[in-house]
C-alpha cells in the first residue's frame, strides 16, 4: 500500500521571469520534473492568452497546465479565476494519480482581485478514502484574506470528512501569518514548515526569500521533510520559491 506522498506548491508568475522579460515555461517544466513530486499545486497559471501566443515564439500551443503536466502527471485540473479580453488564468493541480472529482469555488473579495479555491479529490492505490487537495491563492489585503479564509473553513467543514486526508497548499499572501489561526487552531491542520522548523517558510522573493507568503497545510499526515527550493535555477523562473513536503500517511 502506498503510504508516502511528495507534494509541491509553486506560484509560477504566469510563466514569465522577473519583470515579465522572458517566457520560462520550458525551464519550468524541466525543473518540475526534477522535483519528482506526486502532486503539484500551481498558482497564476495561464489557461489562455491570445496576445502572448502571438508575441512569443516559444509560447506553448496547449494551456500551461497541460504543457506542464505533459506525460508526467496524467491527471490535472484547472480553476479559471481571472478572465480578461486576452484570456484567463487561475490555479491548477497536477497529479500522478486519478482526480475523481474537482470543483473551483469563487472566493473573490472584490472585483479587482479574482480568487478561487480549486478542490480536487484524488484516488490513491488502496487508500480507504480519497485524498482531498485544495489549491489556494488568496488576496493581497487583510480584510479580503479574512473573508477568504472563512470561506475556506466553511468549504472544508461542509465537504471534507474529518477522517479524510487533506492537503491545502498555495500562495496565501500571508506575511502577517494569520492563516494558521483558522487552519491550525480551528480545523486541526498542521503547517509543514511549522512542524519541521518551527515557523512557516520564507518564500518571496525567490532570489533571497524574506517574506512568508506560501504554505503547505496537512491533516492526516506525518511530515518527514519540508524544503524551500530557492536561488538558481528557480529564481530565474518565478518571483516565488517552490515549497515541497515529503509525508507519510498516518
Automatic annotation (TrEMBL):
Keywords: Endonuclease, Exonuclease, Hydrolase, Nuclease. GO terms for cellular component: membrane. It comes from the Bacteria. Residues 8-240 form the Endonuclease/exonuclease/phosphatase domain. One of its GO terms (molecular function) is exonuclease activity. InterPro entries: Endo/exonu/phosph_ase_sf, Endo/exonuclease/phosphatase, GPI-anchor_lipid_remodeler. GO terms for biological process: GPI anchor biosynthetic process. This is Metal-dependent hydrolase, endonuclease/exonuclease/phosphatase family. The lineage of its organism: Bacteria, Pseudomonadati, Pseudomonadota, Betaproteobacteria, Nitrosomonadales.
